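Lab notebook: predicted structure, single chain.

Context: the supervisor wants predicted structures on file for every construct in the current expression panel, including those that have not yet been purified. This is the next one on the list. No modifications to the sequence; it matches the entry in the shared construct table.
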Amino acid sequence: MLVLARRYRLAAIILATAVAGCTVAYKTNILRKDVLTDAQNAIAETEINHGDMTITGSVDREDTTYDTGQPITLSVKVSKDAHVAILRVLPNGDTTIVFPNKGHPKADIAADTLLTVPSADDAVKITAPDKSGIVLFLFVASIAGDSWLFKRGPDKDSDFADLGVTSRAIAKDIVSSLKVGKGPDTVATYVTIRVGGGLF
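Prediction complete. Output recorded below exactly as produced.
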């Protein structure tokens, strides 16, 4: 009986250690996997890359985890002079162009220059949504500036342009407007953030 009790205690200790280890691993991104919704995947899986231009995108927190309402700073760099757009896609597919925006309406960026959105002196702020979940930021660039992505102005009384929740249709329009595969270099990458922390 005493042996059985010791085994139960040992099993409980091992289980507690494993759970604590997993929690630490998730907090340090060792085991973390941000699972996108179907609506977000429709944007993330859009085939935009054509040519040899490269793009990198990032957020200002190494652990990419934010509290609700916390400010987010995005950074993007391209290997050629280009036009850039950054889209935010929420779990329900709600898609917003966060760059260009009211405070920075021009979409052009010089090669190998780090663009920070918003910049330190911008009145426009990007914040984590008020609901926990995974948020996708898509960084898109083209050496041609004729896509509506780079020209779409913010909605009335807003800093950003809201594209709605039809992410599959939006993805199709993006590819069409960029003329992917028909001449200009086009490129995209994405970053996910976790809002609210925890394991979900």
